[in-house]
Amino acid sequence: MIDHIKITNTGRIYVTWTKKAATAASALLFAMGGMSVTASPAAADGPCPAKRLCIYDLINFEGNRIASGSTNACFEIDDFAFDREIRSYDNNLSVDAAVWHRSVYTGLWTKERTLVANKFSSDIARFNVGGTRNAQVCMGPSAYPSL
Question: Please, what's the largest Cα pairwise distance for the chain?
Fold first, then answer.
């Protein structure tokens, strides 16, 4: 199972496994129609592509962007070069996404916000959504954060 994949602002992918294991996992992930996640400065890439969830660390779809095309997976925000909390989003997926936070005290996950399918917000008007450690974004009704 994939624990963490880190993609830098330059598009480099860092996987914590050996090369052989990473290659096998990548092949399995793509064979299953798995998760495609990229992180980049938003201005360089233009608007959020079709069939993608894009989250931004600044209002008005600016700053760093994380884009995912998965409809049944989660990713940790800490694994990306994401400077701040989620401040705006554009969900072009057919499924809702949820932002979850895990308490360092209890270990329990709490849903912070739902990013509704085929909707967007240029300013979610709530600080610190996904901005703390232990935050995950899960796409799809059956995707839940991992421990």
Answer: 44
Cα–Cα nearest to 138, from 103, 98, 101: 98
Cα–Cα distance list, 4 to 10, 25, 90, 100, 136 (Å): 18, 12, 24, 16, 11
The domains found in the chain, sorted by start residue, are 5-139 (2.60.20.10)
What 8-state DSSP symbol labels residue 80?
B
Q: Report the predicted TM-score, pTM, of the whole model to 2 decimal places.
A: 0.68
- Could you read off the pLDDT tens digit of each residue along the chain, which spans 147 residues? 333 344 444 444 433 333 334 333 433 333 334 455 555 554 445 689 999 999 998 899 998 999 999 999 999 888 887 766 888 999 999 999 999 988 888 889 999 899 999 999 999 866 667 666 778 999 999 999 986
**Dihedral sign computed on CA atoms, order 121, 122, 124, 130:** positive
Residue 76 to residue 78: CA distance in whole angstroms: 5
Q: Give Cα 132 to chain centroid, integer Å.
A: 14
Helix (H) or strand (E) holding 43: helix 42-45
